[in-house]
């Protein structure tokens, strides 16, 4: 998108365009340059604001190079966290490597760990809800006369039967082997 009014373009926009061209980007929207400039200006303002705060904290009247370095370093540390020190990683590796690997299954081809230690065999769980009697039969006077009051259920038995009716049944099975 080069060539359209290069004389009227600000110096910063020319720099962004040359950066895009040096990275091999030939075709882009004109708004991309404005977006890069906005990000660039926002970053510079943030760094200068932080440098000013550091300068005021040090009771200096002006911002110097050390304030700018500290502001840039704090931005880098905030944006890109540093990896842990080498000693910490070595200590973690030695403690992890003390745990032996599981025994391998002997056979032809590439040796694999036991099947329960792999993620290769899919396992599915189905939830089968139990049907609940949503419509209870109505009692009539004739039914009441014929029944000779059997032992009434206690409230605990009623709660257990209700809980069993509401609890879904879970069925799980591996699909690693198919029957012949």
From TrEMBL:
<dbReference type="InterPro" id="IPR003162">
    <property type="entry name" value="TFIID-31"/>
</dbReference>
<protein>
    <recommendedName>
        <fullName>Transcription initiation factor TFIID subunit 9</fullName>
    </recommendedName>
</protein>
<dbReference type="InterPro" id="IPR009072">
    <property type="entry name" value="Histone-fold"/>
</dbReference>
<keyword id="KW-0805">Transcription regulation</keyword>
<keyword id="KW-0804">Transcription</keyword>
<dbReference type="GO" id="GO:0005669">
    <property type="term" value="C:transcription factor TFIID complex"/>
</dbReference>
<dbReference type="InterPro" id="IPR051431">
    <property type="entry name" value="TFIID_subunit_9"/>
</dbReference>
<comment type="similarity">
    <text>Belongs to the TAF9 family.</text>
</comment>
<dbReference type="Pfam" id="PF02291">
    <property type="entry name" value="TFIID-31kDa"/>
</dbReference>
<feature type="region of interest" description="Disordered">
    <location>
        <begin position="130"/>
        <end position="180"/>
    </location>
</feature>
<keyword id="KW-0539">Nucleus</keyword>
<dbReference type="GO" id="GO:0046982">
    <property type="term" value="F:protein heterodimerization activity"/>
</dbReference>
<dbReference type="GO" id="GO:0016251">
    <property type="term" value="F:RNA polymerase II general transcription initiation factor activity"/>
</dbReference>
<feature type="compositionally biased region" description="Low complexity">
    <location>
        <begin position="152"/>
        <end position="169"/>
    </location>
</feature>
<dbReference type="GO" id="GO:0051123">
    <property type="term" value="P:RNA polymerase II preinitiation complex assembly"/>
</dbReference>
<dbReference type="GO" id="GO:0000124">
    <property type="term" value="C:SAGA complex"/>
</dbReference>
<dbReference type="GO" id="GO:0003713">
    <property type="term" value="F:transcription coactivator activity"/>
</dbReference>
<feature type="compositionally biased region" description="Acidic residues">
    <location>
        <begin position="136"/>
        <end position="147"/>
    </location>
</feature>
